[in-house]
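Pipeline run #58 for the internal structure catalog. This entry was flagged by the ingest filter as a single-chain record with no existing model, so it goes straight to prediction. Upstream metadata was stripped on purpose; only the residue string is passed forward. Reviewer on rotation: M.T. Logging verbosity set to normal.
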Amino acid sequence: MMQATGIQTPVGVKVTGPDVAVVEDLSRRVESLLRDLPGTKSVIAERISAGYYLDVQNDLQRMAEHGVTVDEAMATIRYGIGGDNIAAGANDGGHRSAEPAVLARYIDTLDKVRHAPVVTADGRAVPLGDVADVAVRKMPEMLRNDNGKLSGYIYVDVEKLTGPDYVEAARLFLANNVTLPTGYSIEWTGLYRYAAAARARLKIVVPLTLLIIVGCSSSHSDPSRRRSSFSCRCLSRWSAACSCSGCWAIR
């Protein structure tokens, strides 16, 4: 279940939507509400930590005006500034990689990054700032993706209640106390789904088993069925006139 849902607590909640800040706010609201719900032993919403990152957003219109392709701009961003590997290999039992990164002293300020050259196919060098917006922005360190939507996880441990019973009560409680903006949703998951699946199967298996038992008991307890199927050495079917020990036992 951990591999399937990413949550190893008895109950988990996934809040999904298009905006990270709204997802985090909703997650904290759900955490606050569930903390006071009977049956909650502990609850914690995942905090989306943030940091400051260099963000480069290509401007397609300006790129077209300067005759720069997306691949040419991305080569400067990915390899020159980001220092990504262009090749890797094994040598003397170890791994070696080739990194064509620009020396740090040429990109140690935001202004220098904006003037990093984007080399075109015809040999021209266009400053990166002429074809892209370069800025330092506060952004999340990690983004969870769930079916193509950003998501936040809430971990819940329960007591005095089974997982399915707790989810049933909590689902109704949140429905009455949380209004979700358009495009956002709440999904219940966690280890409780094992118990919920077993309970659903038992609702079918138990009545079917009892029906079979009752049917078999009825057929064995019907005297007419026993008499009609009994045969003795005297006659092919049971008869009141027969005096053998078998027919006499039936009387």
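catalog note: The first helix runs from residue 2 to 5.
catalog note: The CA atoms of residues 232 and 245 lie 9 Å apart.
status: ready for reviewer M.T.
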